Amino acid sequence: MGLILKPIFFIKMDRNVKVLLFISILFGLALGIYEFIFPLYLNDRGISFQNMGIIFSLSSIAMFFIRIHAGNLADVHGRKIFYSLSLLGSGIANFFTPFTGRLFPQTVLKSLREACAMVQESIHSVALFETAKKKFLDFIGKTVGAQWIFQGLGALVAGMLLSLSGYKDTFLFNAGLLFLAFFTFVVFFKEPVFQKNIAPAIPVKKLYALDFSRPLMIITLSNFVFMIGMGASHSFIMPIFFLNKFQVSKGIVSIIMAVHRLLLGLPMLFVAWFMKEGTNLKRVYIWFVAIEGIAISVSAIIPQFLAATIVWLAHDYVGAAFWSPVQKTLIQQYSKPESRAYEVSKVAAFSTLGQIIGPLIAGWLAGISISAPFFFSGLVMVISALMLVPL
User: Fold this and answer.
1) Closest Cα partner for 352 from 57, 91, 71, 85?
2) In this structure, is the dihedral angle defined by the CA atoms of residues 51, 55, 57 and 61, taken in order, positive or negative?
């Protein structure tokens, strides 16, 4: 894989882009391990679907507040400090997770991890845009694609580590990856040149105001609805759906989660090849979000394991692999230079509120049918695509 990916990644990239790529790889590997083992850890500790929904929902509230304030402060104090802290905080959350199985501390640790992950995502795109504006779509596809690919590998690593050493050592290994990412970023990343916001501090009331430009408002509202659907199918329920509905082993589920990430990440590496100059990015965004929703809903009503898995995986390689980098590009284009981190973070923060609702619905629907959260999720995503039509 290294021989194949090396010429794709490292041609005509300056040091900052290479550092961001390396961090994406480490962060992706850690995230793939965490997303696979965390729901299984909660399940094996006897935490109910409803309480899992509460943990995932409350962590989304933390994402909202921290993401807005971090973006605002990053426009004044720079990108590096907040990116660094997001990596450190993620490592700390992973380190302490295996030492408790109680609801409250797990909610606190999950909230810290999710808030840090969302700050990393927002500041990553801003720092990359300011480093390489002209090649942003290409580089965001490559860095995010690499992150998704290594998330897939992380799921495989998680399956192997679980069978060899159990939950505790797996979480600690994960924390080590994130501490390595933190050290690498602090040492090698150079603060990019950005248009510093020298205006007076933004009042708290304005921070939480829906004062977006029209295009950003449309994207925010649509993505809020999309995140309800995402939270209903991509939270704790994702691996448990395959475990409970088809009675397959954890090893098989780890392979599915790996393929899920790989099929999302690999097409992103080449997204710039498909998006030629003059491509209608808005149309691409709308259609591929709709395709993702249809694939997820249809997979929920297919009774055969292999067929359902194949259809479900289609939401990656003919869905998010294309609309996700396009969405990030549009948000950067619609944001003002002097408040770019603030606006990007604020759009993401308000969108993330949907993830408060989604896991709660998933926890309730899973008690009725393990397939119901997936079917609901896809329908909501299609609705979010229709909301983008006025863009």
Assistant:
1) 57
2) positive
Question: What DSSP designation does 288 have?
Answer: H
For the chain, the straight-line distance linking the first and the last C-alpha, in angstroms and rounded, comes to: 39
> Which pTM value belongs to this model?
0.76
Structure confidence by residue, pLDDT tens digits, 137-178 = 778 878 888 888 898 899 899 989 988 999 999 999 999 999
Kindly report the three-state secondary structure assignment for every residue of 202-255. CCHHHHCCCCCCHHHHHHHHHHHHHHHHHHHHCCCHHHHHHHHHHCCCHHHHHH
Q: Could you give the CA distance from residue 384 to residue 228 in angstroms, rounded to a whole number?
A: 10
Domains and CATH numbers, the chain: 14-193+212-386 (1.20.1250.20)
> What digits encode the pLDDT tens for the residues 55-81?
988 887 877 887 777 777 767 677 888
The residue count of the chain comes to 391
Q: What is the Cα–Cα distance from 211 to 193, expressed in whole angstroms?
A: 26
Q: Which pair of structure tokens corresponds to residue 22? A: 């390396």
Query: Rounded to an integer, what distance in angstroms lies between the CA atom of residue 94 and that of residue 41?
Result: 12
Question: Is the Cβ–Cβ distance between 345 and 125 less than 8 Å?
Answer: no
Burial of 310 (0-12, 13-18, 19+ CB in 10 A): middle
Quote the radius of gyration of the chain (alpha carbons, Å).
19
In this structure, are residues 316 and 260 in contact, taking their beta carbons and an 8 Å threshold?
Answer: yes
